[in-house]
Fold this protein.
Amino acid sequence: MLQPYLYKTKLEAGLDEAGRGCYAGPVFAAAVILPKDFFHPLLNDSKKLTEKERDELRPVIEKEAISFAVASVDNDEIDAINILQASFKAMHLALDQLHKTPQLLLVDGNRFRPYKNIKHRCVIKGDGIYASIAAASILAKTYRDEYMKKIHLEFSTYKWDKNKGYGTMDHRLAIEKDGLCKYHRKSFNIFSEQVVLFE
């Protein structure tokens, strides 16, 4: 059972990212403020749900949330500032878009760059502990998956509709065969021996 909040009297936003370990594409982050009494039997860490379950939960979260936002940082900026800083930036960009200002941020993981003067609490595996972080994990994941399916149409050789940019065998074999494209993260040391940069 996920915990509905850390402090009952504070307006809390859950934060999580998706795509941090991928070879290609942006990192996405979501910020979600849920009502204290929000409950859905399927809600959990997005990694523990099927794609169908995540897709079922997304509109429920968006409808019931007090406020939510999703943002991304692209692969070029990831290469420029590194993936950790890009993850923090994506979270900050999502927070910038919230219609309500939270009093506390519940952040999945063990590190975070402070946002304005709002207190935060890092929670390791928080997407399996707090409902708002789980909701953020689902939004970040579904929005990113949707984006990767879209750019798959441009570069179908990498099969991003299936692997979503992660370093699966089919993705690595495609890189060996065709090299990298403009959506790959060049700082991730994934160059094949035969590098062709598709534009």
Q: What stands out?
A: The mean pLDDT is 94.
